[in-house]
Automatic annotation (TrEMBL):
Keywords: Membrane, Transmembrane, Transmembrane helix. The chain crosses the membrane at residues 15-32, 82-103, 109-129, 136-152, 158-177. Pfam families: Peptidase_M50B. This is Peptidase M50B-like protein.
Length: 210
């Protein structure tokens, strides 16, 4: 007999974790159109475009440049590679990196590793960025992560874990719906994919599938 009772499903730490995720989701959705979340939105755009670049490299293509714009848009210039794999990589990659960051936030050691890898990636991109918006974003987040790291080491609050969790939640929240499903212009990756795919499915359909 299956036991559907949830009396002993979660310990204290699990309840805190699930509650924190719920609070992050509400905060992100409530403040999505405000200036407070713009830096986090730009960093999600950066990793979205970076996922396109990774897919291009994995399919033997050449990445000519990555740009993140102040209007929260982004572009990845590629040559070669498998186009129908590069297109969905932005959003599938966003989901993957979001999952990695959320899982990393559950432990202080893994949160430190995630923050360190993130800072190194931003430092590398700083030297290959094609515009000053992306360069400024990299510099700002490197400094931000450094400050958070110092606060983590000098206080008892697990602030680094919360920040990593918050960044991870940005991928699983309104960003994907806002830019992939609700968008109706032909500049979205889903709409472009619908144009090259012979399947009878429009951009919204592909957005839901992804």
């Amino acid at each position: 007999m299956l036991n559907w009772e949830l009396k002993n499903c979660c310990n204290h730490d699990q309840v805190v974790f699930l509650t924190t995720i719920s609070i992050c989701t509400v905060v992100i959705l409530a403040l999505w159109r405000t200036i407070f979340l713009r830096p986090f939105k730009l960093i999600t755009v950066f990793l979205h475009e970076a996922s396109h670049a990774v897919a291009c490299k994995l399919t033997c293509g050449h990445v000519e440049g990555i740009q993140v714009h102040a209007d929260e848009g982004g572009t990845t210039q590629t040559r070669g590679g498998v186009y129908w794999l590069i297109l969905p990589a932005g959003y599938l990659g966003s989901s993957f990196w979001g999952m990695v960051l959320i899982l990393a936030s559950t432990n202080l050691l893994t949160a430190r590793i995630a923050a360190g890898c993130f800072a190194v990636a931003l430092l590398v991109v700083l030297f290959v960025a094609k515009n000053w918006t992306l360069r400024g974003l990299c510099i700002g987040f490197i400094i931000f992560l450094g400050v958070i790291w110092v606060l983590q080491e000098t206080t008892k609050v697990r602030i680094l874990q919360y920040i990593i969790l918050f960044i991870g939640k940005c991928y699983f929240s309104f960003y994907i719906y806002d830019d992939l499903i609700s968008r109706r212009v032909h500049s979205s990756d889903a709409e472009k994919f619908a144009e090259v795919c012979p399947c009878p499915c429009n951009g919204v359909g592909w957005g839901v599938i992804w």
